[in-house]
Amino acid sequence: MRILILLGLLMGALGGFSQKEVPVSMVPLGVVKCADFEPDGQGNNIQWQKTSWNSLTRLDSGEADYTSQFKILYSAAGIYLLFSGIDNHISSDFDQDFQDLFKGDVFEAFFHPDTSIPLYLEYEISPLNKELVLMVPHINGKNYGWLPFHYSGDRRVKKMVHVQGGKSAPGATISSWTAELFIPFALFFPLNKVPPAPGSIWNANFYRLDYDSGQMIKWAWSPVVQSFHEFEKFRQIRFQ
Fold this sequence. Notes:
mainly beta, Immunoglobulin-like, 14-stranded mixed sheet, 14 strands
C-alpha cells in the first residue's frame, strides 16, 4: 500500500504525464561525446554528424524572424558549440573582446553545472568574432559578471566565426553567420560537477540577440521573460 501511495505522489509531482506526454522542455537534451577537433567556424568536422540541430525560439515581435539554431557536443576536454543564424546585416561595431557585445548581434551560451549554487558561466560571440566571457554570481536577485583570471592556454575558448553573403565588417550586408566554439572544462573551475561524467546533468540555456530592426530582438532555447539571467528557467542537458 505504501508503495502505491508513493507512486501516486510521484505521478502527481510530474503532473500526471505519461511517457509520451512529457513536455519536451522537461526532457534533458542529450549531449553526445566526440573526439577533439579544431573549430573552423563552419561546422565542417565530421564529429558534428553525431548530433542534430536545436532551434532557438524568437521571444519578441520584429521584422525578420531569422532562423536560429545550435548544436552541442562534448569531449573529455570541453564543450563544443555550433551556432547558425540567418541574418541581413551585421549590427555590431565592437572591435575588441570583453566589450558590451550584447548591445549588438551575438549568440550566447549559459552553463549552470551545479544548480545548488547560483553561479554559472556566460559566453557571448559576435559576428565579428569578438567574445565576452563571464562567471556570473546571482545572489539576492542580482547578478554581475566577473571576467576570467589568467584567460590563456588551456583555459581559453577556441572560437571561429564564418560570415556568408558579405564581408565580416560592421554594418555589412550578409545572408547568415555561424560561430563554432570549444569551451574547455578548465575554464569552468572552480565550479562543481566539472568535468561532467557520462550521465551528469547540467542546466543550460542558449540565446541570440539581433538589432537589424533598430531594437533588440531575442531568441532563446528555453524561453525567459525579463532577462537571459533567469537561471531558474534554464533546461537540463545530459552528458551521454
